[in-house]
Amino acid sequence: MATSPTVRQPTWPEHLRSRRWTRRFNSVVVFLILTGLAFVVVGIPLGWMVITALKVRTQVFAWPPVYWPNPIRWQNFADVLTNLPMLRFAANSLLIASLNIVGNLLSCTIVAFAFARMRFPGKNILFMLLLSTLMIPNQITLLPRFVLFQALGWVGSYLPLIVPAFFGNAFFIFLMRQYIMTIPRDLDEAARIDGASTWQIFTQIILPLCIPPMTVIAVLTFLWNWNSFLDPLIYISNYQDYTIQLGLNMLKGRYNIQWNLIMAGSLLGVIPPAVLYFLAQDRLIGGIANVGIKG
Q: What is the pTM of this model?
C-alpha cells in the first residue's frame, strides 16, 4: 500500500519571515497606490499650471491643446513682477503672517498651559466651550466681526487681520494642550521643589519641550494667512496694502484675463510656503505625530 508523501510544515522562524514579507509587500502596494493618487490629484494640476505659465497667450485655450509651450516664454514671470508690485504685496502678506504667528504662539501656548497644568473652577466646562467654537463656521461670524471692527475704526487697516491672533485659536489651543499633557508632571514637581514659579516652569521647562507643536502652529498659521483672500478683501482698501492673493486677483481683468500671467503669478506665490514646508518638514510631521490624545 502506497503511503502519501509527508507535507513539511514551515518552521516558526520561516513562518515569521513569510508574514514579514507579506506585510512589506502590502505596504509597498499601499504606498504605490497612494503615490499614484497624489500624482493624479496634485501632480497633474501643478504640471498643467507650470506649462500654462510658460505659454504665450494664444496657446492657453488652443485646440487641439498645446501640451508643451513652443516657444517657452519665461518673460511671463517678469511681466507679473513688472505689471504689478507683487514684491510689495508679498511683503505685506509676509508681515501679516509673521505677526499672526507671534500672536498665536503667545496666546495659544499660555492658554493651553493653563488648561493642561493649572487647576481652577470650571476648567473642563470652559475647555468644552472652547472646543464647541470649532463647530461655528467662519462665515457666520463674518458680519459681527466686521461690525465690531468698523465700530473700532479698524476697517482699512491690518488690525482686523492681526489682532484676533493674539486672543487665541481654539484648534491650536487644543493641539498644544494635548501635547503638554503628554509631558510628565514630575518635571513640574521637581522644578517646584527647586523653587521655580509657575511662569518659570512654563517658560523654562514646558516651552522648550513644545517645539514640535509650536512648529505646527507656525507653519499652519503662515499657510492660512498667506493664502487668505476673503478677509483681506473685506478689510483692506488701500492699493499699496494689498496682499499677495489680492494682487493675483488683479491679474484678472473684467474683459481681459491673461491666464498665463495668472499661472505664473500663482507659481511665484507658491514658492514661500513650499520653502517653509521643506525647511520645517521633520518637525512638522513629528509635531503632528507626537500629539497625544490624553485627557
A: 0.81
